[in-house]
């Protein structure tokens, strides 16, 4: 079955879908994006993703391409047309097409919108989860505005590639003070020996993950102790458990960090419980 993408008002076969070569998303990574989990054909936590998209657009002064309710319709349509039951839907908005010049276009341009969706075999995530993933650390080298979900992801691309080349699944960034910020495409967590779940505050140095936000609410409801504070790779290595979260991974147990075995070296009970419980606290639409 051929895949269908939404590109600036049209649903097209992916093979024919294209954007202008002077699109600022292509030339400057001048755009933002969202990735939503698709589960049983439904979109997970869509309102929160759209709210974050709205914030990212506003921080970059990119116009909203259409009302959020219309974007939601398009995303559902792309999921349906691609018959995705389990997988992800990707939405990208760039500032639009203009003659190449670093400054914003002087005449208003229409933002470009692209939406794609793809199936992911749930067994793949389950497999990774059963084994637990390896994480390496890399020096934080991104700009300070990582709170904006920008398509400018070159440092993240290099960090993920470094992880793959080291036989790991994810790279966690470590800032100049020696604290973990987040993963190249996920938020970082540990569980202390006395059972406290710890993640860095979203005030600085991280993207405020939607999975992170839902999980914090879940922790409260499940009456699991939670601390919002930075932690070091050394603390993670000595922790009872570690895990990493993203819409595309949900809760993914981490079993080694830079080769140091965490806890038992197997996915921990807290991470597994949170993964199992997560969707009770998520919204579906
Ligand atoms: N941090 C970064 C850098 C990411 O790319 C992602 C995934 N988009 C996350 C955190 C997790 O965010 P979310 O839970 O919204 O997928």
UniProtKB/TrEMBL annotation:
Coiled coil residues, start to end = none
- A GO BP term, please? branched-chain amino acid biosynthetic process
User: Pfam families attached here?
Assistant: Aminotran_4
Catalytic activity reads: L-valine + 2-oxoglutarate = 3-methyl-2-oxobutanoate + L-glutamate; L-leucine + 2-oxoglutarate = 4-methyl-2-oxopentanoate + L-glutamate; L-isoleucine + 2-oxoglutarate = (S)-3-methyl-2-oxopentanoate + L-glutamate
**Pathways involved:** Amino-acid biosynthesis; L-valine biosynthesis; L-valine from pyruvate: step 4/4; Amino-acid biosynthesis; L-leucine biosynthesis; L-leucine from 3-methyl-2-oxobutanoate: step 4/4; Amino-acid biosynthesis; L-isoleucine biosynthesis; L-isoleucine from 2-oxobutanoate: step 4/4
Give the enzyme's EC designation. 2.6.1.42
Name used for this protein in its record: Probable branched-chain-amino-acid aminotransferase
- The species this protein belongs to is Rhodopseudomonas palustris
């Amino acid at each position: 079955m051929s895949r269908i993408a939404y590109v600036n008002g049209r649903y097209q076969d992916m093979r024919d879908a294209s954007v202008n070569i002077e699109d600022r998303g292509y030339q400057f990574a001048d755009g933002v994006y969202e990735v939503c989990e698709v589960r049983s054909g439904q979109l997970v936590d869509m309102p929160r993703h759209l709210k974050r998209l709205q914030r990212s657009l506003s921080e970059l002064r990119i116009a909203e391409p259409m009302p959020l309710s219309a974007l939601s319709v398009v995303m559902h349509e792309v999921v349906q047309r691609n018959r995705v039951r389990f997988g992800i839907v990707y939405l990208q908005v760039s500032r639009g097409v203009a003659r190449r010049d670093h400054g914003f276009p002087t005449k208003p341009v229409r933002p470009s919108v692209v939406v794609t969706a793809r199936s992911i075999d749930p067994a793949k995530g389950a497999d990774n989860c059963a084994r637990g993933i390896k994480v390496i650390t890399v020096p934080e080298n991104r700009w300070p505005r990582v709170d904006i979900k920008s398509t400018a992801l070159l440092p993240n691309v290099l960090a993920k590639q470094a992880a793959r080349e080291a036989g790991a699944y994810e790279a966690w960034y470590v800032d100049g003070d020696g604290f973990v910020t987040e993963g190249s495409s996920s938020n970082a967590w540990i569980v202390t020996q006395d059972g406290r779940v710890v993640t860095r505050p979203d005030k600085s140095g991280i993207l405020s993950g939607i999975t992170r936000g839902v999980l914090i609410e879940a922790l409260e409801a499940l009456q699991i102790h939670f601390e919002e504070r930075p932690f070091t790779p050394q603390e993670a290595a000595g922790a009872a458990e570690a895990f990493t979260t993203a819409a595309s991974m949900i809760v993914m147990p981490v079993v080694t960090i830079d080769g140091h075995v965490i806890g038992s070296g197997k996915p921990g009970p807290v991470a597994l419980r949170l993964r199992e419980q997560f969707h009770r606290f998520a919204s579906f639409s």
